[in-house]
Design goal:
It is built from 10 helices and 6 strands, in the order H-E-H-E-H-H-H-E-H-H-E-H-H-E-E-H. With about 220 residues, it is α/β, with parallel strands linked by helices. The protein has a single domain, classed as 3-Layer(aba) Sandwich (Uracil-DNA Glycosylase, subunit E). A hairpin with a 2-residue loop joins strand 5 and strand 6. The protein starts with a helix and ends with a helix.
Length: about 220
């Protein structure tokens, strides 16, 4: 069943990205960057919650850059090591609730990154520093594409890295119909949505670990998940 899921997902994602990139080229945008599920085998094979990070943008000068392929080939670099810590915290909130342990977390970095998915709101013309209004503009322009990517990935948890304003644009009325408190978390179609900092933030690993564990534990109680 997993092999069939992977085959279907890859075909749907490839079709989506081809259409999306062509639309960007017609607008004169440059350097379309692909993202998505880092390792489909790990994604569909995991018993832990499927986490998708909704981030701002990826900056790269190469044409045809694929973020998830680079994460697989090069291993997680600095920001993504932080994402691995966040992922571990969420897994523990839905699992054994283990305390912060640097050695265990370091050991799990590779497998945690393999188990996630990533969606960047801004797929073209990435910059080192994001502009709030420009991100919202891309979210509006690409709302249909972004929603399709989210539907294909179909995560259990969406973690917004300072992008909850974009998620509201992407989901539109579907989001507004759910009465949620988005200060820290919310719910959409049975999925937990966490409104959190961007992974580039300077807070220590330990602080993020316990903060995310706490948010997830409160959300589990509120939504009975």
């Amino acid at each position: 069943m997993d092999a069939m899921n992977i085959k279907i997902m890859r075909a749907e994602m490839e079709s989506l990205f081809q259409e999306w990139e062509a639309a960007h080229k017609r607008k004169g945008y440059e350097r379309f960057i692909r993202d998505g599920i880092v390792s489909p085998e790990d994604w569909y094979g995991q018993s832990t919650p499927k986490i998708c990070y909704l981030l701002k943008e990826a900056r790269h000068d190469d044409e045809g850059y694929n973020l998830v392929e680079n994460l697989q080939a090069s291993g997680p670099w600095q920001m993504w090591k932080k994402v691995a810590v966040w992922t571990e915290a969420i897994f523990q909130a839905f699992g054994d609730g283990k305390e912060y342990d640097q050695e265990r977390i370091q050991t799990n970095i590779r497998q945690n990154i393999n188990r996630i998915a990533v969606i960047n709101v801004k797929k073209s013309n990435g910059q080192s520093k994001s502009d709030y209004q420009e991100l919202k503009k891309y979210a509006k322009e690409d709302r249909v594409f972004l929603r399709r990517e989210l539907d294909i990935i179909n995560p259990d948890i969406i973690v917004c890295g300072y992008t909850s304003h974009c998620l509201r644009v992407i989901l539109g009325d579907d989001w507004k119909n759910n009465k949620t408190d988005m200060t820290l978390f919310g719910e959409w179609n049975g999925k937990l949505v966490i409104d959190y900092y961007h992974p580039a933030s300077k807070y220590p690993h330990r602080v993020n670990y316990y903060a995310l564990m706490s948010i997830c534990q409160v959300a589990r109680e509120k939504y009975k998940i």
